[in-house]
Design goal:
Blueprint: H1 3-6, H2 12-27, H3 34-49, H4 68-83, H5 87-102, E1 110-111, H6 117-128, H7 134-149, E2 154-155, H8 157-173, H9 177-200, H10 212-215, H11 228-240, H12 252-256, H13 265-275, H14 280-301, H15 313-331, H16 336-339, H17 341-358, H18 364-381, H19 386-401, H20 409-423, H21 426-437, H22 445-458, H23 470-504, E3 540-542, H24 544-566, H25 568-577, H26 585-594, H27 600-607, H28 612-623, H29 632-639, H30 649-666, H31 674-692, H32 702-708, H33 720-732, H34 747-756, H35 759-767, H36 775-793, E4 800-802, H37 807-829, H38 833-852, H39 856-869, H40 880-895, H41 904-922, H42 928-931, H43 935-944, H44 951-954, H45 960-967, H46 986-998, H47 1004-1012, H48 1019-1037, H49 1046-1057, H50 1063-1081, H51 1086-1103, H52 1114-1128, H53 1132-1149, H54 1157-1168, H55 1173-1189, H56 1191-1194, H57 1199-1213, H58 1219-1237, H59 1252-1259, H60 1277-1287, H61 1293-1310, H62 1316-1339, H63 1347-1368, H64 1370-1373, H65 1377-1388, H66 1393-1410, H67 1416-1432, H68 1434-1445, H69 1456-1463, H70 1470-1510, H71 1516-1538, H72 1540-1553, H73 1560-1581, H74 1583-1589, H75 1591-1609, H76 1630-1651, ...
Parallel strand pairs: 1-2, 3-4
Helix pairs in contact: 2-3, 2-5, 3-4, 4-5, 4-6, 5-7, 6-7, 6-8, 7-8, 7-9, 7-11, 8-9, 8-14, 9-11, 9-14, 9-15, 14-15, 14-17, 15-18, 17-36, 18-19, 18-20, 19-20, 19-22, 19-34, 20-23, 21-23, 22-23, 22-37, 23-37, 23-38, 24-25, 26-28, 28-30, 30-31, 31-33, 32-33, 37-38, 37-39, 38-39, ...
Length: about 1700
């Protein structure tokens, strides 16, 4: 052990004190400091005898292990050495003190200003700083920092401040720059130590070392003497890291005593004594010391120079140091500053006041420090200092930012740096907007910041004078753009953070409170600063909807305020209408009194208006003031603070009158009446103007003022002292009314100042170089301080937090315009790589935010701007920044593709143009080289372009495509430079070629990556992407001069990439692609259309590789474009190509085709109807193969496919090119039927019938009759049968007849497979329509020239086939009896003889073959149909007769010459024209009468035949119906022959037209004959029924009618017995003789029937018949047979009666 180690004895303190005292003794002058030497030696002797307290050395105080008395004895020499002021003695003493504090040997003391030994040491050390020695200064700093750092002692407030002041003095008066830097560093380290302990409320804390380099950021860089900063940093680190105390080295004695375990005990005991044994007051003492220190620092920072020494640099340095230390404190402030009311109060009342006072300093370092402190406040205290930040932000930042013309370079750079920091913190950016721009009572900080950055980015306006150099201006521009980029980037980061939180919290409620989390900031200091809200802030978590309302409310208020400042009445009206202000005068007055931004002059003008409502508002405004106990002058001054008096005297008069009333009301004893106050108020206003207006030369004296106011108090004078004091008050202190805003950029600042009462103080601090905190200025500062206090205590100051990303929509609405302008202008004007890179990043971030927020307009604006800056539309002018813009476009597409929507079009347009430039550079032939040529020339052009030279290799080339690109065009032009006249110089082309090398930076990989990346787009984005790509491709292909296929090929690639997406998404994609392929496939450019169809074929072949499940329709949707183009294209080549493509797909992918068959058959159906024979034959060839070889494939999915197949075959039957095709198609239809019957068509899923089959049946239903069935596969027959049914209307006889035969053969051959319900469907859907169509054909006349063929041939075949089928399957189809009979009856009603005869034969066959099977109802149905046939034409026939009655027919008995005259005048004679028309009408009527009579006769014939054969099967009801048919027909025929005039007209007309007349007599004869025979047969065969129906009476009645008609025809008029009878009869004419001959057979039948009556029957009716028989005797007859039969009746019937 060395000698130095043996000094001081065995105690630990002795190990430190012994060597130091020994050194002091050696260095001291013994004679001069004999007492010091003596005391030191005594201390050394004492140390030799001392050892540490063995029980608890750590509890000893003030020295470790020693008693208090021993400590005093040992420390006295140390104090004496420090007070000696002798450097060689002071230096070891300081070193000893440092080691005592650093090693914790001085412990357990509360050091304060008292007589304690430790305080004396501290005091002595501080005084040593006055010694003019650099080493001593450093040693003093070292000791003081060690003392403050020591956790074993607590330095209380005054002592702590004393230490700080001492270091402060070392900094201000240090002998070297290094020492001053060390002093500043020591002070900063002390601040960190003290306030870290304050934060933790403990002496034992971990403290970080101060960074000296960062400490010198704002000031004192000039003090750096080479390595001063490094030295100071090492100096601090050594003090802070001094842990090797001497008691860590164990003496042999300690080791022997086993004291090893107590090495760390002193520190542990100390910690226990402080942390566990201390009470609450001790905890608060630590914070109290911190509070006091902070308060004193703030006060130090607010010291200003006196008027005598305005340029006091020492004071300025002290102020700067104070601000630096406050900056350190705020930079390291912990949560206690935001949660402890007292500390927050200190920040508000002291620090904010310091910022306010120092804001007027012109020293740059102070301004920088203020900005740094403000940054810390904004970062950590924004929730608690909302109002204060709202004041300082405009004061410190916006004021400088908005100064564009004459800014201080360093000051503005500081502001821009601060804004960059702010903009890098996403949460701060959001909070600023939410709490200020959305708050009615706060300035629009975010909006003004963005607009200020825009102004800076744009630079000084053109023509303005600026103090900036070009370099400074450019620096400002770039920095402002950088800030804007950081802002939009932060918005995007915050948005991504919130959306990510939302994704991780899928169960979040509609309240967004669960989403409020601390985002990850770029600054670590902000981690704990985010939403740590304290009670004073009344923080609330708001949703976007609430903030939207707040923002809208603020915008409405601002709009109303702006309108008020132009037209006050309009503004108030607007605000009331918008419900932003109440409609009562009191509410309007309150608004005018409290709202910021209102023009004070406009308020005064509004108060002075004559209208009733403004006057009420003025009265309410005045009444809102309380002038109680206010002096008159003070009251006027207070009253006029809020507005400017108007200039018109009458307006002032009204306002002052109301003021006087209010003042007197508040102070009733002030004046005799309100008139006195009114006059005096007016006089004070005049005095104020006179005294303070520089234009007034002769000022009013006090005597003048007193004289002017004599007698105003109700005839009395006011006190001269009162008036004199009022005069002095006004003259000395002007009544100032607030000035109008002077500049647009300061309007918002002025309104803010008005709201906060800052007009005076801001005027003060902005205009004066240095503020003197004296007099009125001090009053203003106190006033602002009071306002701070008032605002901090108001409960309505609420700090809003929001986590809903929707808030960004409102932020973007504010900032997108300025950002777009700033980025665009900078990108356009600057070629600086960093600046352009920043702008492009800004565009990318802006697109990201606007795209994610769904803001289409803003997103498109940013994307379009970037796209324009690519300069791909004018490549000759491209630069590196334009290539970077292309890269940005690609990045945007990759990063934000899911939200680009319509913006994809701009991006894909750029890619298209980029690819075009690449091809030009590589020398590849243009697409137009083969798209614009005919097919025959295509090969030649391709060969010519094989050796197309590369532009990059060849240098220049006068190629049209190159020239067009070099000339360029607008961004929106589809073709570049085609219409621009003029040649392109070689220099231009060379410049363009050099630019092409720039494009090599972007390879094909990047270009193709976008399209490959489409696989990762979401379902909405891929649809938008494909839609945009289709549009771009359409523009490429439709280019009249340079069509291209780049986008089309990429479209095919994208379809390939995305073909594996889910069906729903792919269906939406294909919906877009389908429309595109159809549109381009119908293009007039044949080459383009062929290329598109081939591309579609490639996709289809690829798609058909995937198998499709049943009941899906995706294949059909995919192939629809083929069908649509096939149907609409006018190009033969395209249609033929489509047929070949479909044929290829069918033959190669037949096994995978499912729903695609529908489109396949649609294409072939269109081909079958094509005008080109080659297309028809090509399609039919494939169709034949499909039916013969692949029939099972087309029938395994659904009935609709089979329907389409049948429709296709039927369409082929209509082919006019080749009859073999038509007949083969019909044969294939029969083949399909055979397959059906054999079970070749299997409907795999029965559930499908409910949908597909019913749809088929509904499509083929006729006249609203719906076909439905439940058979497994029977419904497949319906399309086939209904198709053949329609073929029966084909105009070609062979096809018509073949279809008819095939249809009924199929039904007859396979009808046994059908159920009864399905037979009903077959009749309704296939059979009945045939005969309806046939009726239409027959009724259509000349429109169907082959209709007669149907009548003569087809009708007979159809009727025979129908009855044959009906009879064959009667048991299954008997329910269709009515329809079948109706059809046959319909044929009977046709005008042709053959159909009618065929119908009669068919009906008779039906009755004969099925007679025994028919039920009574079925017989009844047949008879009723016949009855309906007989009666259906009667209404129309009656109309014909009426028409005939109205026609005048000339008499044919007139002379021939008159007839010639009347008929031979031609068209020149109007009467002749009428006659011709009448004759044509008569001819038509005659024709229709013949048809009508024929129908009646056929009905009678059928009824007669049926009754004769089946009379036994007919029931009485049926007989009654038949009786009615005969009766009505006979009556009808008799009525016709009874109309003499009609008969005469018909006879004339027929004679003139030389046509045969209608067989009316024959009709009557046949009707009565059938009727008589029926009655006679009924009388004979059915006596009982005859008796029931009185058949005998009816028979006699009919006989009488016939006989009477005959007598009338013979000229014998039958009259009753009581009338006279004619004496003679006229001879009969030829016509009557013919008629009589025609009626003779009927009369013979009557007489035969009468003769066959029984004797009794004849006797009963002889009285009625005898006169008629007598008449026959007397009449003339055409045949002797009548007389013979008549004789027989008299002989056999009458004779016996007479004889009896």
């Amino acid at each position: 052990m060395s000698a130095s180690q043996t000094l001081g004895g065995a105690s630990r303190c002795g190990w430190v004190l012994g060597p130091s005292l020994d050194k002091i003794i050696k260095n001291v002058a013994w004679r001069k400091h004999s007492q010091l030497v003596s005391a030191s030696k005594s201390a050394l002797d004492k140390l030799e005898s001392l050892s540490d307290d063995p029980s608890d050395p750590a509890s000893c105080s003030p020295l470790y292990g020693l008693s208090s008395s021993d400590a005093d004895l040992l420390l006295q020499p140390l104090i004496a050495a420090l007070e000696s002021a002798y450097p060689k003695v002071v230096e070891p003493a300081l070193d000893c003190a440092f080691r005592l504090f650093s090693f914790g040997l001085i412990r357990g003391c509360e050091i304060k200003e008292d007589a304690s030994i430790i305080y004396r040491i501290i005091d002595s050390v501080c005084k040593c700083a006055a010694i003019a020695d650099e080493a001593i200064e450093l040693a003093v700093l070292k000791v003081l920092l060690a003392a403050v750092r020591s956790p074993c002692n607590r330095i209380l407030g005054d002592c702590l401040i004393y230490i700080v002041r001492s270091c402060y003095n070392v900094y201000l008066g240090g002998h070297s720059g290094t020492n001053q830097i060390c002093a500043k560093a020591v002070l900063a380290q002390m601040m960190i130590i003290v306030f870290t302990r304050t934060q933790e409320n403990s002496m034992h804390v971990d403290v970080k070392n101060v960074s000296v380099f960062e400490l010198l950021e704002f000031a004192d860089r000039n003090l750096n003497e080479g390595s001063s900063i490094h030295f100071a940093q090492t100096f601090i680190n050594e003090i802070m890291e001094c842990k090797d105390s001497p008691f860590m080295v164990k003496s042999p004695t300690e080791l022997q005593n086993g004291s090893e375990a107590s090495e760390e005990r002193p520190d542990e005991e100390s910690r226990k004594s402080v942390d566990e044994s201390a009470d609450v007051s001790e905890y608060s003492t630590i914070r109290e010391d911190g509070f006091m220190l902070f308060k004193n620092l703030c006060k130090l920072s607010m010291k200003f120079s006196s008027q005598e020494s305005s340029d006091d640099q020492i004071l300025l340095r002290g102020k700067t140091l104070s601000l630096e230390l406050l900056n350190v404190v705020m930079g390291n402030a912990g949560p206690i500053w935001r949660t402890n009311e007292r500390f927050l109060y200190a920040v508000k009342q002291f620090l904010c006041l310091s910022l306010l006072k120092n804001s007027g300093q012109s020293v740059m370092s102070i301004f920088q420090l203020l900005c740094s402190i403000f940054w810390n406040l904004l970062l950590k205290f924004r929730s608690g200092l909302k109002s204060e930040i709202g004041i300082f932000f405009p004061m410190l930042i916006l004021r400088v930012l908005e100064n564009v013309l004459q800014p201080s370079f360093l000051q503005k750079m500081t502001v821009l740096s601060l804004l960059e920091k702010i903009s890098q913190d996403p949460q701060i950016v959001i909070d600023i907007f939410v709490n200020y721009d959305c708050d009615v009572d706060a300035p629009n900080i975010f909006e003004r910041s963005v607009n200020g950055l825009l102004k800076t980015a744009l630079g000084p306006p053109p023509g303005s004078i600026s103090s900036l150099s070009p370099i400074q201006d450019m620096t400002f521009r770039h920095e402002s753009v950088k800030c804007l980029v950081r802002i939009i980037k932060s918005m995007g980061s915050w948005m991504d953070q919130q959306l990510k939180v939302g994704e991780y919290n899928p169960t979040k409620t509609s309240d967004n409170e669960n989403m409020v989390e601390s985002p990850n900031y770029h600054n670590d200091d902000a981690i704990n600063a985010d939403f740590e809200l304290h009670p004073e802030a009344n923080s609330e978590i708001y949703h976007a909807a609430t903030l939207e309302q707040r923002r809208a409310h603020k915008l409405e208020i601002q709009k109303g305020t702006a309108l008020f400042n132009r037209k006050p009445s309009k503004g108030i009206e607007f605000l009331i209408k918008a419900k932003k202000v109440g409609s009562s005068p009191e509410e309007v007055a309150h608004f005018l009194k409290t709202t910021s931004g209102l023009n004070e002059s406009m308020i005064g003008d509004y108060f002075g208006e004559r209208e009733e409502f403004p006057m009420k508002v003025m009265h309410a405004y005045v009444d809102s003031f309380n002038f109680e106990k206010m002096g008159f002058g003070e009251a006027i001054r207070f009253f006029l603070r809020g507005f400017r008096l108007p200039g018109e005297a009458q307006k002032i008069d009204r306002i002052m009158e109301k003021f006087a009333e209010r003042y007197c009301k508040c102070n009733p004893n002030s004046f005799t009446s309100a008139d006195t106050a009114y006059v005096l108020a007016y006089s004070v206003i005049m005095l104020n103007t006179d005294a303070h207006n520089s234009m007034v030369k002769d000022k009013m004296t006090k005597a003048d003022f007193i004289r002017n106011n004599r007698g105003i108090d109700d005839g009395k004078d006011l006190s001269e002292d009162y008036l004199g004091s009022l005069y002095d008050h006004i003259v000395k202190n002007e009544i100032k009314m607030k000035p109008d805003p002077s500049a647009p950029q300061s309007k918002q600042g002025n309104s803010l100042n008005k709201r906060l009462g800052l007009d005076g103080i801001l005027n003060l601090v902005w205009k004066q170089p240095e503020e003197k905190a004296l007099g009125a200025n001090g009053y203003l500062l106190r006033h602002i301080q009071e306002q701070f206090k008032a605002k901090s205590s108001k409960s309505e100051v609420v700090y809003h937090a929001v986590a809903d990303p929707a808030i960004l929509r409102f932020m973007v609405e504010v900032c997108w315009g300025p950002m777009l302008a700033a980025f665009s202008v900078t990108l356009g004007q600057s070629d600086d790589k960093e600046a352009t890179s920043q702008c492009l990043q800004g565009f990318r971030y802006a697109v990201h935010v606007t795209a994610m927020m769904g803001m289409q307009t803003q997103r498109d604006a940013f994307v379009t701007t970037v796209a324009k800056f690519t300069y791909l539309h004018c490549a000759a002018d491209m630069k590196q920044k334009n290539v970077d813009a292309v890269k940005a476009i690609i990045s945007i597409a990759i990063e934000d593709g899911n939200n680009l929507q319509e913006s994809w079009e701009h991006i894909l347009t750029c890619l298209s143009r980029f690819e075009n430039l690449q091809l030009l550079g590589e020398g590849a032939p243009s697409d137009s080289s083969f798209l614009n040529t005919s097919n025959s020339e295509h090969d030649d052009v391709t060969l010519r372009n094989v050796n197309y030279p590369s532009l990059k290799r060849k240098g220049t080339l006068q190629n049209p495509a190159v020239m067009a690109v070099v000339r360029g065009g607008s961004y929106d032009s589809t073709s570049l430079g085609k219409n621009t006249p003029g040649l392109v110089s070689p220099e231009q082309i060379n410049h363009f070629i050099s630019n092409l090398y720039l494009l090599d930076q972007i390879g094909n990989f990047e270009l193709n990556h976008i399209f490959a990346h489409s696989q990762r787009l979401n379902s909405e984005a891929i649809v938008s992407f494909v839609t945009a790509l289709c549009k771009v491709s359409m523009l490429e292909l439709q280019s009249p001069t340079d069509p291209r296929v780049f986008s089309l090929t990429k479209l095919v690639e994208v379809a390939h990439y995305n073909m594996n997406r889910i069906r729903l998404v792919w269906s939406r994609i294909w919906s877009v692609l389908s429309d595109f392929f159809v549109a381009v496939g119908l293009s007039e450019n044949l080459s383009v259309a062929i290329f598109v169809m081939d591309s579609l074929r490639q996709l289809a072949m690829k798609f058909l590789e995937r198998e499709e499940l049943a009941n899906y329709n995706f294949q059909n949707e995919f192939l629809i474009p083929f069908a649509v183009v096939m149907q609409k294209s006018n190009s033969t080549e395209i249609r033929e190509l489509i047929v070949r493509c479909i044929s290829q797909m069918v033959l190669s992918r037949v096994g995978n085709i499912k729903s695609g068959w529908k489109s396949v058959f649609t294409v072939f159906t269109a081909a079958a109807a094509d005008e080109r024979k080659s297309i028809v034959l090509l399609a039919f060839e494939t169709m034949e193969k499909i039916v013969r070889e692949y029939f099972p494939y087309i029938t395994e999915t659904e009935a609709l496919i089979f329907t389409d197949c049948v429709k296709c075959l039927i369409t082929f039957t209509n082919s006019r090119f080749n009859s073999d095709v038509s007949l083969n198609a019909i044969a294939f239809l029969r083949f399909c039927a055979v397959k059906l019957a054999d079970g070749g068509l299997v409907c795999r899923e029965k559930s499908k019938e409910d949908d597909s089959c019913s749809q088929v049946l509904n499509e083929n239903s006729v006249d609203g009759q719906t076909c439905t069935d439940k058979d497994d596969y029977a419904n497949f027959w319906i399309p086939l049968l209904s198709g053949l049914s329609k073929l029966t209307s084909d105009p070609r006889a062979a096809i018509r007849k073949g279809a008819l035969e095939v249809l009924f053969n199929i039904l007859k051959d396979h009808g046994q497979l059908f159920t009864q319900p399905f037979w009903a469907n077959v009749f309704n859907c296939a059979i009945f329509p045939i005969f309806r169509i046939s009726v239409d054909i027959k009724d259509s006349g000349p429109l169907h020239p082959e209709g007669n063929v149907w009548d003569s041939e087809t009708s007979i075949v159809a009727a025979e086939c129908l009855i044959d089928l009906f009879v064959h399957f009667f048991d299954m189809v008997r329910t269709q009896m009515h329809g079948v009979v109706s059809i046959l009856v319909g044929f009977m009603k046709s005008p042709g003889q053959a159909p009618s005869s065929a119908a009669v034969a068919a009906l008779m066959r039906l009755a004969n073959d099925l007679g025994s099977k028919l039920s009574e109802d079925e017989w009844q149905d047949i008879v009723l149909c016949l009855k309906e046939a007989a009666g259906s034409s009667l209404p129309d026939f009656a109309k014909l007769l009426k028409t005939m009655d109205s026609i005048e027919i000339p008499d044919i008995s007139q002379p021939d010459n008159e007839m010639e005259l009347s008929t031979g005048r031609g068209v020149n004679n109007d009467g002749s024209e009428d006659n011709n028309a009448n004759l044509q009408t008569v001819a038509y009527i005659v024709s229709r009468m013949k048809v009508h009579i024929n129908i009646q006769l056929l009905v009678i014939q059928v009824v007669t035949d049926i009754y004769k054969i089946h009379w036994k099967s007919l029931s009485p009801n049926i007989v009654t119906t038949v009786l009615g048919i005969f009766s009505s027909t006979s009556s009808h025929s008799h009525d016709l022959n009874s109309q003499t005039s009609l008969l005469l007209k018909l006879d004339r007309a027929c004679s003139m037209w030389e046509i045969s007349g209608p067989p009316l007599v024959h009709f009557e004869n046949e009707s009565y004959k059938s009727y008589l025979n029926f009655l006679h047969d009924l009388l004979v065969n059915s006596p009982s029924l005859s008796e029931e129906k009185n058949v005998e009476g009816e028979l006699i009645s009919v006989c009488k009618q016939v006989l009477q008609t005959y007598l009338e025809c013979s000229g014998f008029e039958y009259v009753s017995q009581d009338k006279p009878r004619a004496n003679c009869a006229l001879p009969l004419g030829s016509a009557k003789k013919e008629e009589l001959a025609a009626r003779t057979p009927l009369v013979l039948s009557v007489m035969w029937i009468l003769g066959s009556l029984g004797r009794n029957s004849f006797r009963r009716h002889v009285s009625e018949l005898f006169p008629l028989l007598v008449g026959l005797v007397r009449s003339e007859h055409s045949s002797m047979e009548v007389q013979r039969v008549l004789s027989s009746i008299f002989q056999s019937c009458i004779g016996p009666l007479v004889c009896k």
